[in-house]
Amino acid sequence: MSKLKFILSGGGTGGHIYPAIAIANELKLRYPDADFLFVGAKGRMEMEKVPSAGYEIEGLWISGIQRKLVSKSNLLFPFKLLSSLWKAKKIVNKFKPNVVIGTGGFASGPLLYMANAKGIPTLIQEQNSFPGITNKLLSKKAKKICVAYDGLDRFFPKNKIIKTGNPVRQDLLAIDGKREEALSHFELDKTKKNVLVLGGSLGARRINQLVEKELDFLEKEGVQLIWQTGKLYYEQYKYHSEKPMVQTHAFLNRMDLAYAAADIIISRAGASSVSELCIVGKPTIFIPSPNVSEDHQTKNAQAIVGENAAIMVKESELDDQFETVFSELISNKNKQSSLGGNMKQLALVNATSDIVDEVEKLIKNNLK
Ligand SMILES: CC(=O)N[C@H]1[C@@H](OP(=O)(O)OP(=O)(O)OC[C@H]2O[C@@H](n3ccc(=O)[nH]c3=O)[C@H](O)[C@@H]2O)O[C@H](CO)[C@@H](O)[C@@H]1O
What we know:
By secondary structure, this protein is of the alpha/beta class. It folds into 2 domains: 182 residues, Rossmann fold; 175 residues, Glycogen Phosphorylase B (Rossmann fold). The chain has 15 helices and 13 strands. The chain has a 7-stranded parallel sheet with strand order 3-2-1-4-5-6-7, with helices on both faces. Strands 10-9-8-11-12-13 form a 6-stranded parallel sheet, with helices on both faces. Strand 12, helix 12 and strand 13 form a beta-alpha-beta unit. The longest helix has 24 residues. Bound molecules: uridine-diphosphate-N-acetylglucosamine. The site of uridine-diphosphate-N-acetylglucosamine has 25 residues, from helix 1, helix 11 and helix 12.
């Protein structure tokens, strides 16, 4: 067989980038000689995160459509789309991939569209319980659609769907032996409980406001915080690190160690975050973002809460409920271990390998 070539495309937020990196890493293990190219959106997070994971990336001039209809970005959208389609065509013609894998986000639209038009097999990986517009459009021509939730046949052709779960980075699969390393990495006081606050890959304004408001309460509870503010909000909140019980981070590059150090986690409910938290199996309070399409983070969290495996507090209920919910959880060891245990039961640990099995089938069918 001649050297295999793969294009992976997706981005905009970490939720679309890390699954692509996990899939590429698994493909690389199976095909060490293969060539890989990532295609993302210029100026977005993937342009930094993909090269630091060791892969090349090309950026398209593309963005999503804003909800506010009349905006400068929306007026430019037709031009961006045309320019991206043209560049995507050039990339596909030059690189000649055997398979193209799309992990969602607007960058994958033009690239997979062009690959489909040229008859190159495409596979989509949909992380959420409700798909975004890009994946919905691409699903018509895609050969396979790997999903993490039931019920996606409402949006995608049923015969193409395979439930694999979301790919999770390899280093998150084995955090159990890493607690000591994690405590010294974050220079934590070993006598205290650690609360990890996660706002998703971009950070969450409302969670940051909550944590700031509750700092005195959390100090009285005797915990220390690893608080991921998000890059956008870091300057505003970093001064809180002056308190010995608080450390603020714009972005955590060692999520494995952050999860390993945590006793309790407060988190948004983006799809990969939820999948990772199931693997990690620590007591979690979800605060879903209400600002995403079809309120899908609430549904992501609900799928876990419905199995008695986590707690959810909606943004609108935070002021009334957060302190009570937190105090009850931190003081109840049995509840902590039952939530963590139940969560682990929901983990789909073979997701990446199952997705790559599907990629292999596409390669084989195409070579026939
Ligand atoms: C606001 C928004 O549009 N959110 C969407 C976005 O979330 P978002 O980009 O936050 O994605 P996820 O919650 O799915 O994943 C976050 C990823 O970033 C990593 N991470 C996070 C923080 C950090 O400091 N370091 C780090 O490495 C996590 O380990 C995880 O792998 O994509 C998800 C997947 O399509 C959707 O479900 C979310 O609704």
